Amino acid sequence: MGRFADRLASLPGPVQSILHTAAVLGPELFVLRFGTASPEDERLLVVNFGPDLEASSFAEPLVAPPEGRTWQVRWSSGEPEYGGYGTPPVVTDAGWRVPAHAAVVLQPKLRRKER
Can you tell me the distance from the alpha carbon of 31 to that of 111, in angstroms, rounded to the nearest whole number? Predict the structure, then answer.
């Protein structure tokens, strides 16, 4: 994907109609939450101007994925096509690992059911 393309980004109308809200998670870390009526169209833009950041969780409801889903990387400025080395999963069962000096767009994916 040479250029970031996404259904949400191509929707008609101003960005204010899909921007839910924003939150600062740290001195150099903030998020913007975008969404529509469909949970699969939710997006979380994570911007980190600082070093790698690891956290078990954030005390911010804005970063919670839609019901029954978890976050997966949709796009990242850390990919090789932008001069980076690739982006590992940002959200895992162990918590969050936000790459340094990067912007990452997360999208929801259905959570695997426990057996």
Answer: 22
Q: How far apart are CA 30 and CA 47, in angstroms?
A: 5
Q: How far apart are the first and last CA of the chain?
A: 35
pTM: 0.83
Residue 8 has pLDDT above 70, yes or no: no
What Rg, from alpha-carbon coordinates, does the chain have? 14
Alpha carbon dihedral 97, 81, 13, 18, in 10-degree steps, equals -10
pLDDT digits (tens, 9 = 90+) for 18-59: 667 899 999 999 999 987 778 888 999 999 999 999 999 999
Structure tokens at 83: 């001069």
- The sign one gets for the Cα dihedral 111, 66, 102, 92 is negative
Domains and CATH numbers, the chain: 8-110 (2.60.40.1180)
